[in-house]
């Protein structure tokens, strides 16, 4: 993660993982300046708004940002042939007394 303050007093955040980079900032002009600077040194592909990063799905709304691993979970269920399985509310009866009975030896 790289954080830099700009000349206009705003912060730009870059997250780098191997060959993936996420850039975030309020001012799009500063983002474009950084992308142009990177493009002079590296071959880059701009995917516009972030949808997936490191297997996580990213969704934006007026309320904020939601990060989930729904796709990963669905792929895992398919791989383990468990797509048709029904979820259990709890793995054990919540009324079951889990007290341990001990005996003195």
TrEMBL record:
This is Reverse transcriptase Ty1/copia-type domain-containing protein. InterPro entries: RVT_2. Pfam families: RVT_2. Residues 1-92 form the Reverse transcriptase Ty1/copia-type domain.
């Amino acid at each position: 993660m790289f954080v830099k303050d700009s000349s206009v007093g705003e912060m730009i955040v870059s997250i780098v993982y191997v060959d993936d980079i996420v850039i975030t900032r309020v001012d799009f002009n500063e983002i474009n300046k950084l992308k142009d600077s990177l493009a002079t040194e590296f071959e880059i592909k701009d995917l516009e708004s972030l949808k997936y990063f490191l297997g996580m799905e990213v969704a934006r709304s007026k309320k904020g940002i939601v990060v989930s691993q729904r796709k990963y979970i669905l792929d895992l269920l398919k791989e383990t042939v468990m797509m048709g399985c029904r979820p259990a509310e709890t793995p054990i009866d919540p009324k079951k007394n889990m007290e341990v009975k001990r005996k003195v030896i």
